[in-house]
Each structure stands twice: as structure tokens, then as C-alpha cells.
Design a protein that fits this description.
heterodimer; A: 180 residues; alpha/beta; Rossmann fold; seven-stranded mixed β-sheet; 5 helices; 9 strands; globular; B: 93 residues; alpha+beta; four-stranded antiparallel β-sheet; 3 helices; 25% strand
């Protein structure tokens, strides 16, 4: 599977990640490693996962070139599923959010309303993030953003920390804090 | 893969922790080839080219993983050979 190449959504998330120092953070969907290189500088320890073997390898090469592998571990996994509970201070992802009836391209298809996959990632993240820990994610107004936010609000506090207008949509950067 | 990752890894299927590590090939701190075993459900997760692969059954590639198991046949625990999940080396031979 082709790794996701950085887009406007990646850059929006990159700006946000730059403002969140953490002890131990998890990135879901490392893609080509752009966010991972920032996390490596902002967190004491970073774990990065991707469902794509090629993405995981490419990110490994990028980090090795920049000599950033000392505090980063990479693995192949489906989101936040292979971790112990309440482990991370910070979970970061730019999920696939393109509304789609089925998931064909896992790097962009978000499922029903474009929020089905982001909600799956969020739900698994909630298990592995510590109490008062944060989930940072990007979503688009082209997906059912309001529905996703109301679900997050049941267990978390949600803050919109940045917005970026594109031609047909607006990208929204969310800071989600686990309440309990 | 480095040993420090074991502290936070759990089986993606049943969340069992800790997983058991079998090392086949190492370079200093780095485990290049090996297996992670879940004693709860009996699944193995391969570490190939230094990268652990912890996918759910429906996303795993049987061919690639069986080839990997064949390479390390002599070092595999008997339970993986006879009864490994989701793929058995024995029935594929």
C-alpha cells in the first residue's frame, strides 16, 4: 500500500504538534514521516504505527537520515490496538476522512460520513491515552464533523485550535482532552 | 525493534500483556528478526527487518509470514510450528 503523502492536513497537524511537548506520544499513520520527525523533537519517547509496511519503512529511513531514531520506535499496526491501557500522554493522527461507502484506499477513505474511521481511531486511542492526556487530530468540514465532535464530547473536552480554509472545505485541528 | 517497546506492547486482539519475545537475529540493541507471542490467544506476531507487525488476522499476509517462519524454522517454539495462530507452519508444508 502506498504511504499517504503530506497534504494541507498534514501541515496543519504539524503546526499543532510543534506546540505540545510530551513524555510519551503515539502517532497513528506515520505516512512518510513528516509529523514523526516533529514528534521526535517534541517528545521524550515516540511510538509510530502505520498499517502500511512501506510507510513504516520509509519513515524509518527518514528518521535514520535525520538521526532521530534514538527515541522513536516504529511498528506495523491497525491504529492504537497493540498497546497497554493508559500509556501515552499524547496521541496524534491525521485520519483518513474522505466520505466513502466502503474502505478501498485505507490512506484516504474515512467510511460513512467520513467519520467512521476517525471515530474508530479515536475510540482505540481513548483506551491507550492517560487520564487528562490529549488526542490531536485533523478533520474536514467535508465529513460529518459535528457528529464526530458530539461523540468526542461524551468522554472528553474538545477545543478547535486551528482552522485552514481550502477551496471546497475547511480543515479543523482538534485538541481532545480525556476527562476521566 | 528495541526491548523498551515490550513494556507497552499488548496483543491487539485480546490486549494480553506482556508478550513473550523470541529473538532470532540481533544487532547490538536492535532485534532484527524474531517473534512476539501472546500466551493468551496463541497468536504470534513477526518481527521482520527490525519492524514488529501487529496486524489483526484479516490484514495479515499469510504467504509473507509463512516464508518468514520457514527461514527461522529451527528456532521456532514447537507451539508455533504445530499450533500457531493465525497460520500454522506444519499444515502449509
Amino acid at each position: 500500500m502506498e504511504p499517504y503523502s503530506p497534504g494541507e492536513d498534514t501541515f496543519l497537524l504539524a503546526d499543532m504538534v510543534n506546540r505540545y511537548p510530551a513524555k510519551i506520544s503515539l502517532e497513528i499513520g506515520v505516512g512518510r514521516g513528516l509529523i514523526t520527525t516533529i514528534l521526535a523533537k517534541m517528545s521524550e519517547y515516540v511510538v509510530g504505527v502505520d498499517i502500511s509496511v512501506d510507510a513504516t519503512k520509509e519513515t524509518g529511513r527518514v528518521l535514520a537520515t535525520l538521526e532521530l531514531l534514538q527515541n522513536v520506535d516504529l511498528l506495523i499496526a491497525d491504529g492504537a490496538t497493540p498497546f497497554t491501557p493508559e500509556t501515552f500522554d499524547l496521541v496524534v493522527f491525521n485520519p483518513p476522512y474522505l466520505p466513502s461507502e466502503e474502505i478501498v484506499d485505507r490512506s484516504v477513505d474515512g467510511g460513512t460520513g467520513g467519520i467512521s474511521v476517525p471515530i474508530q481511531w479515536f475510540t482505540a486511542s481513548l483506551v491507550v491515552v492517560k487520564k487528562a492526556g490529549k488526542v490531536l487530530m485533523v478533520l474536514s468540514t467535508s465529513s460529518k464533523l459535528e457528529d464526530a465532535i458530539s461523540l468526542f464530547l461524551k468522554t472528553c473536552n474538545v477545543r478547535i485550535v486551528a482552522r485552514r480554509r481550502l477551496f471546497f472545505e475547511e480543515l479543523v485541528a482538534l485538541e481532545i482532552t480525556k476527562r476521566c | 525493534m528495541k526491548h523498551r517497546l515490550l513494556k507497552i506492547l499488548a496483543c491487539p486482539i485480546d490486549k494480553h500483556h506482556p508478550l513473550e519475545l523470541k529473538e532470532f537475529e540481533t544487532d547490538k540493541e536492535e532485534i532484527l528478526s524474531g517473534l512476539l507471542l501472546c500466551s493468551e490467544c496463541g497468536r504470534f506476531y513477526p518481527i521482520m527487518e527490525g519492524i514488529p507487525s501487529m496486524l489483526p488476522d484479516d490484514l495479515r499476509t499469510e504467504k509473507r509470514e509463512l516464508e518468514f517462519l520457514k527461514v527461522w524454522r529451527d528456532k521456532l517454539p514447537p507451539e508455533v510450528v504445530d499450533d500457531g495462530r493465525p497460520f500454522k507452519l506444519k499444515s502449509s508444508e
